[in-house]
Amino acid sequence: MPQRLAILGSTGSIGKQTLDICRVYPELFTVEVLTAGSNADLLINQALEFNPNMVVIGNEDAYESVSEALRKTDIKVFCGGKSIAEAAGNSEVDTVVLAMVGISGLEPAISALKAGKKLALANKEVLVVAGELVTRLSIEHNAPIIPIDSEHSAIMQCLQGESSTSIEKLILTASGGPFRGFNAPQLQNVTLQQALDHPVWSMGNKITIDSATLMNKGFEVIEARWLFNIAADRIDILVHPQSIIHSMVQFVDGSIKAQLSKPDMRLPILYALTWPQRLKAPFQTGGLSDIASLTFEKADTSAFRHLAMAYESIKIGGGAPCVLNAANEIAVDLFLQEKISFPGMQNMVNKALERLAHTKALSIQELLLLDAETRTFCKSLNNI
Ligand code: NDP
Ligand code: MG
């Protein structure tokens, strides 16, 4: 039986690469659900090619055009965030690939886990905002969360056959982004174009900016904390500009295991779909003979304060990581619109944490309220 997929965020970078794999292996994967935010044209084209049961467009204004374009097919068309969350629990689906951005993926993740689906998770912000609740649901409903994020996929691969008591620490690698080696004064005047020019990965805009500030790496520490149930002070970061080692695990006997490959997100996507098995990659992966050297540097948390704030927020616990994420979403959005500067993003997140972070454990409803409160607070800040 082929694995039946729901791809949430199919019009984005991870979504499209997931469909690349489905295109090559139609006997192994069928596409049952596709969802997008606003890109109606691409969603329609994907629907006509993959013939899913259902598509959902988040933006309600685009419903008419999607519905009209698919009128002569059997494909059901829905719109809005609630419908995306419902689609994640669809009974025709085995695996939900969650490739939306930010907190928008939280309710779909909950719906997928409650319905006992395998969750192939790219949308790391879900674990940043609600890691404790989401991992608890995964256990209660016997619904595995398999990371697509390359670092976490690497760690998961290193941990196969190992006992959790053998782990000394996790070592997340980081490319360092476009501003590797910059000090705080040099970061003052960097531009949006420079920040969008990632040296290794081609990704959606939000994660590209998060990679430039190193917020992405901070989020990945929180993601790893919940995925692998390990304290954040046992998760180290090592800057590795070549991005060949995707992460490592150090064991209690001093041994270190690493997963290496050329940087290509289709590889961790494929692993998430086929785990615990491996499948022949339908694309060129290449060897390492043309790699001259692998180098490592310490991460600079004084210039890249986002990283320090992520560690601080996980230490505070409770609603702090939710505040961290919401403030960062607003800050990145304003930076993408060139309304605040690069250091302005850091100031905004810092102010939000000072004002709103607290230790109280929260329900999903309370987290959503805290998210909204943080957004309002950030939008009210002037001269940031
Ligand atoms: P993109 O911006 O390229 O794609 C995001 C997708 O989600 C699009 O399909 C978009 O729809 C949809 N979407 C965004 N907001 C909403 C919303 N409010 N409601 C419904 N749909 C929405 O992002 P990426 O693919 O780069 O990243 C996706 C996630 O994966 C992020 O959390 C990122 O951190 C993570 N990730 C990405 C990696 C990468 O290589 N790209 C690597 C590791 C992790 P539309 O475009 O139609 O509006
Ligand atoms: Mg990553």
Could you please describe the fold and organization of this structure?
The chain is of the alpha/beta class and 384 residues long. The chain has 3 domains: 3-147, Rossmann fold (3-Layer(aba) Sandwich); 152-264 and 292-301, no CATH class; 317-384, Rna Polymerase Sigma Factor, Chain: A. Helix content is 45%, strand content 16%. The strands form 2 sheets. A 7-stranded parallel beta sheet has the order 4-3-2-1-5-6-7, with helices on both faces. Strands 11-10-8-9-12 form a 5-stranded mixed beta sheet, with helices on one face. Helix 6 runs parallel beside helix 11 (215-227). It is globular. The structure holds NADPH dihydro-nicotinamide-adenine-dinucleotide phosphate and magnesium ion. NADPH dihydro-nicotinamide-adenine-dinucleotide phosphate (NDP) binds next to helix 1, helix 4 and helix 10. Residues 9-15, 36-39, 58, 81, 84, 99-101, 104, 122-125, 149, 201, 203-204, 206-207, 265 line the site of NADPH dihydro-nicotinamide-adenine-dinucleotide phosphate.
Q: Which class best fits the helix and strand makeup?
A: alpha/beta
- Kindly report the name of the CATH homologous superfamily of the largest domain: NAD(P)-binding Rossmann-like Domain
What is the CA-atom radius of gyration, in angstroms?
20 Å
CATH topology of the largest domain: Rossmann fold
Sequence of strands across the biggest β-sheet: 4-3-2-1-5-6-7
**Biggest sheet statistics:** 7 strands, parallel
Q: Which architecture of the largest domain per CATH?
A: 3-Layer(aba) Sandwich
As a percent range, the share of helical residues equals 40-55%
Q: What is the count of β-strands? A: 12
Low-pLDDT stretches: none
What is the straight-line distance between the termini?
55 Å
**Beta-strand residue percentage:** 15-25%
What's the number of structural domains? Answer: 3
Average pLDDT, rounded to a whole number, is 97
Number of helices: 16
**Small-molecule binders:** NADPH dihydro-nicotinamide-adenine-dinucleotide phosphate, magnesium ion
CATH class bucket of the largest domain = Alpha Beta
Order of helices and strands: EHEHEHEHEHEHEHEHHHHEEEHEHHHH
Shape annotation: globular
